[in-house]
Predict the 3D structure of the following.
Amino acid sequence: MKNEEDNSHNTVRNILTRDFVLGFLALFVFIVAYHSLIPTLPIFFKRLGSSEGEIGILIGIFGASSLIFRLIVGSILLKYPEKYVMMFGSMLFAFTFIASIALRPFWPFFAVRFFQGVAFAFIDTAALAFIVKVVPLANRGRAISYFVLAPPFSQAIAPSFGMFIINRYDFTVLFLICLALSLCALFFSWKVKGQQVVASHRNTSTNNSLFLDVKIIAPSVMNFLQNFAWGGIIAFIPLYAINCGITNPGYFFTANATMLIMGRVLGGRILDAYSKEKLIRTFIFTSVIAMVLLSFSKTLPMLIVVGILWGTGGSFFFPATMAYALDYAGSSGGTSVGTFRAFSDLGLAIGPVLTGAIIPFTGYQGMFLCLAFIGLINLCYFHFYLSKKGV
């Protein structure tokens, strides 16, 4: 028993190094700024007269640009240390908030959202590639689980905080706060120890190109479908909640984030000890149930229940699928990470656009049921195709 506890403590020490903590902090403050925009930007666009279709495009272009540039970042990481890529992303994000104060929809803010997606691609891909590189292979699942606590920690406070700022002050104050957070991300990225990039012949195999790891595409489709649904939810749940008389939809994101944190803190050991296939099946199904319930939710308590269910599924789904995908592809380089995350962004990009287009025909409740059907497709894809081929 004592040996098991010692091994667990040694594992944690091997993971929580100085660079791990600095990389975590850089991603955390960056994501706080990003999550502050999730419930507030749809309201910002709506107040300025944008339609649901235009809102979907302005939300979705973020994921589209992030998708494109993740593939480019993967090749950049073959030449430059992750530290400098993270710094560039932080600086670019800061500049977009300066522009946000002066520019207004549609086309000027379309450009702002495009470059915000570019910035996100740079820092998120580089930070994940850095962590995968510096942690022991045996603890990869747990390390990823700990590192991706940054988004739920920020999601627990940022959406509600963002709503508080715009209700108490205005959007200019919110954009200035996000500017300051971006500069904090730049500082933490600067303090990360840059690692020498070593060229490897493995990156030029027949399965990989400079921008794309072909072998990781099949498992990445799971993340695409999951993020397609999530993209539709984050784009329109604030407007749906307000239509139902709920004044602060940020509580949905807080409930979701709380479960993400609990699952990843308490479940890190599970990811290394138990079958990733069982975890993936279980939590895709949990997400489907959450979307069905969301279509019938009209009160704040029900919205919180949905947030809890979605967060429970998401707490294990992303680290499990990423570890599964990297094992499936037999690679952990920047190109592999960039390709995997690019498919996530593709879902986030297409989800809001298509859901925004169908809402006039189905309404919000019908749209959420359509997303539940997408979840069932994802479950069938994994069970009947992907898992049959094995890792």
Q: What stands out?
A: The longest helix spans residues 334-389. The radius of gyration is 20 Å. DSSP finds 15 helices and no strands in the chain.
